[in-house]
Amino acid sequence: MKIALIGAGPRNLSILGRLLFTINKAAKVEIDLFDPSPIGGRVWDPFLTNNHTFLMNTFANQVTLFDDYELYDNDSPIDRPNLLDWAHTRAFDYLKEHPEYPKAYENEVISLISSNTFASRGLFGIYAAWYFDELLAAKPENITIRFHQTEIINMTKGPRRFKLWTRNNYIEKYDRVILAPGHIDNQLNEKQESLRKFADKMGFVYYPASHPAENDFETITGSDTVLIEGLGLSFFDVLLSLTAGKGGSFITNRNGSLTYRPSGREPVIVAGSFNGLPPRSKGINQKEASQLYVPRFFTLKHLKSIAAMNHGKIPFSQFMSLLKQEMTYKFIYNQVMQSDLPFDSTKANILHALDNPLSWSSLNDRFNLDLETEIDWDGKIFPAMNWQDTETFNKELLTHIENDIQSAQLGNNWSPLTGAYDLLRDMRDIVRTLYNENYFTEDGYEKMLTQFRQFDNQLSAGPPLVRMRQLLALLKAGIITIAGPGFKTGHNEHFFEASDKFGQHFQGTVLIEARLSTIDFRIAKSPLIRSLARQGLIEPNDRFKKENGQLLFGNTIKIDPNTFTVLNKKDQAVDGFYISGIPLEGERWFNTVIPRPYVNTLIFQESQRLVDSLLARSPQLHRILKKKD
Question: Is the overall model pTM greater than 0.90, yes or no?
Answer without folding.
Answer: yes
